[in-house]
Every structure is written in structure tokens, then in C-alpha cells.
Amino acid sequence: MQITERQIDDFKSERKDIAPPLPVVLRLVPLLFYCSIAVAVILSSIFAIQFQLAVQKRDSHKAQTASLAAQTQDAKNQRTALESQIKKATDIQNWVASSRPLQPLLVEIIRSMGPRSSIVDLRLDREAGNPSQIKMGLRMGTDSTKQLDLTVEKIALLNYRAFSPTQTLGRGELDYKATLVHQDPLRQQTGEVSQ
Amino acid sequence: MNNKHIACGIVTLFIVILVQLTLWVQGHRTKVQNEAGAAQQAETDANAQLNQERAQLGELRRQSTDLIEFLRIWQPYFTTIDNPQSAEVNLSMRIKEANLVNLAQRFEQAPVKGNASIPNTMRAFLTFEDDYARLMNWLGELEVKMPTVRTSSVRLAKGTRANDLRMEVVLEQPLLKK
Prior knowledge:
The complex is a heterodimer of chains A (195) and B (178).
Chain A: H1 5-11, H2 24-97, H3 103-111, E1 118-126, E2 133-141, H4 146-157, E3 160-170, E4 173-182, H5 185-194
Antiparallel strand pairs in A: 1-2, 2-4, 3-4
Chain B: H1 3-63, H2 65-80, H3 84-98, E1 102-111, E2 120-131, H4 132-145, E3 150-158, E4 164-175
């Protein structure tokens, strides 16, 4: 059996509003609620999108930074290895520079002796602290200093420069002492040109 | 306060919760955006550091080209003999091969000051008495064939025979650090 609309209304008897109506300001609250829902959804969506983009950007930058840091470390390692190689090369170069053969110098000194002169004792010692400097001690059997001049001249032809030379002549023997330092002719020429 | 007021209060509370939620999301966004900004700055710094490091490396490479080439050429000579035993054997063999009159020979290992790559040398204290030409040729050949060997001291004096020389020589074989 169908109940008519009128009959339903009959169940709910007409009655007066128990509570007084809300003030006008508070009637705006439901409207504000709906508006706040809409604004919250829109803003939260925007913020969420921006959040996602920022996360992607941050992660991308972090990954790129890590990659750059790895490349920097690699470059640093290469530089350290190169510095080590340079140090080694410098050490070897120093050794080689201070290991110039002495045989040509010996031969030249011996060959410089004239018929009336002879070598009694010839000594070449590299200085312990500075091996590129050679302490020379030459004792010759000669009666004049001409032979010494000739020998020193021959030594100079091999690009050795004598420092602090001392000579003592007595009893038919000449004692000569000096510190020899090899001068690189190419470097000297370069120095002259630059001057 | 009636039920309408209570309903209004509840709705207002919901509004506050929604605002707080939105502010919370905004706060998170701002935080991550700041982190992204910091990460970008870090990337810029890292990039600058990499460029600086590469520039330094390039400059160092450019400056050291000759030295590295020098090392490439010379290092094999130094690595051929890199221990005291081989240095001693090598020098002894050369003396024997030359068949020189060797009056005395002594070997000792000695430290090298101020050279980190060559911390030690094998020193050979040799005394010969032989023909002048043979001795000079031997020494000259040794210095040419073993360019790393340093003749640190030579003393020449007359020998017992007319053409003989007495030669006391100290040779140093560098032992490259491994």
C-alpha cells in the first residue's frame, strides 16, 4: 500500500523552532566551510605539485653534485699522482744532473800535461751535500804555473768553472785545489740573450 | 549555547583543521624548495671546484710536460737495477769482464739525503792498478753504459809500471724507491 506525501507529513507534527536562529555572521560559517574546502584542495594540490617538483629538483641537484664531487676527487687523484710523478722526475733529474761523467774531465786534465809536467796525484771528489760541485785536488810535478794555466783552460773548455782556486808551488811540485761547477752552455746562452 | 552554536563550532573547527593541513603542506613544500635551492647552490659550488681542479691539473700537466717526458726516458735506466744485490753483481761482472787488475773492492749501502725517490745507493769502493788507457776506457764506458751510476770520487796516482795508473774510485748505484 502506498502512503501519500501528505500522510507522511502527518507523522511530523508542526512545531515551533526551539532554538533561536543564528546571528547573520555565524550563518556565514557553513559558506566559509565550503569555501575553505575548495581553497584547501586547490592550494594543497598546487603545493603538492610544487613539492614533487622540488623533490625532483633537489634529488637531481644532489645526484649532479655527487657526480661532480666524484669527478673532482678523480681530478684530485690525478693531480696527486702527477705531483708524485713530478717529485720523482725532479729527484731523478737532480741525480742525473749531479752524476755527470768524470772520465772526460780526467782525460782532459791528463792530456793537458806537457812533456815537462806530470801528475803526481789527481783527486776529484763530489761534495756530499751538493754532488754537482766537484772538489778538485791536483798535485803536479812542474816548475812553472804555465802548465796549470793550460790545465785550467782545458777544464774551462769542458764548461767547468773553478771556484775558490788555491795554488801552492814548492819543491818542483804545484798543488792546486778548486771547486768545479759545471755550467750548462745552453742555459748560459739563454741568460745572455735574455739580458 | 544551543545545538546550532555547537554545529557552528564544529564546522569552524573543521575549517581550522583544513587551514592547518594546507599550511602543513605548504610548509613541507617550502622546506623541500629550500633544500632544492641549497642543493643547487652545492652543485654550483661543486661545479666551480671541479673547474678549478681541472684548471690546476691542466696547468700542472702543461708545466710538467718536459719533466714527465724526462721521467719516461730515464726511469727504465733506474728500474733496471733496483736492489743492492743486483747492483753489486752488475758492477762485479763489469769489472770481471774488463779483466782489470782490481786490488780491492768493497760494497756498502748508503742513504741519500734530500732525495725521497732515491733513498739509498749501493756504493762500490774500487781500487785498480792497470794501464792508463784501459782504466780510462773502462771508466768512460761504464759512465756511458750505466748513466745512472755516479762517480762520486776518483783518485789517480802513478802506478808501479810506466803506463800504469792507480785509480781509487767510488761509484754509486742509485736504488730507486719501489
